[in-house]
Amino acid sequence: MSLVVLISGRGSNLQAIVQAGLPVVAVISNRADAAGLEYARKRGLATTVVPHKDFATREAFDEALAREIDRHAPRAVANAGFMRILTPGFVARYAVRIVNIHPSLLPAFPGLDTHARALAAGVKLHGCTVHFVTADLDGGPIIAQAAVPVLADDTVAALAARVLRQEHVLYPRALAWLLGGKLVILDGRVRVEDPDEKQFLFAPDA
Ligand code: GAR
Predict the structure, then answer these.
(1) What's 1-94's CATH class?
(2) Which of 24, 10, 18, 6 is nearest to 82 (CA)?
(3) Which of 59, 62, 134, 153 could be cross-linked to 90 through a Cys-Cys bond (beta carbons 3.0 to 4.6 Å apart)?
(4) Pocket-forming residues, ligand 1, beta carbon under 6 Å
């Protein structure tokens, strides 16, 4: 019952996952300079770098990444700020056991620069989504969401920080459901088989 976490950068979600006591067995990054690797090493976790620049094609990179993941035979894979588009073959290999956290209320604002786009669109609620990874970028079945208000004088940085605080609560919770076998996908929708748990968080005072 173990988890491999994929990162590309800061690693604050990785920290939240580790601090929640989830069984992380390895951290893999496509960038050697990812700050999250330093945290993982300090915690005594196995770390590996698979530099995407070393590979001529996405398929070759994904193949190398899969080899590293499979060495640990994890129950699940968590993308935590892992900024690579994954090939359909890779996604199929980990079907229903690879998840991602995305900084918007999907299906709004897939892709990059979500906080700036939310501000530009004038939405009054923003947030984050944990979803299964499929070949459809940021389009897999939604497991859980957290919403925060967008305030009149928000900056991208202020809004991003407000959302990130919720990411750190939401992602460990969703991963615990996944590892605990509590998630069922029916007709492309996720049901959480845990009657006491909410699948959303709302942080009006965040
Ligand atoms: C998080 O906000 C996460 O939602 C986002 O990157 C940040 C990583 O922060 N992920 C994406 O944009 C995926 N497309 P972290 O490295 O501190 O966890």
Answers:
(1) alpha beta
(2) 6
(3) 62
(4) 7, 9-13, 36, 80-81, 101-103, 128, 164, 167
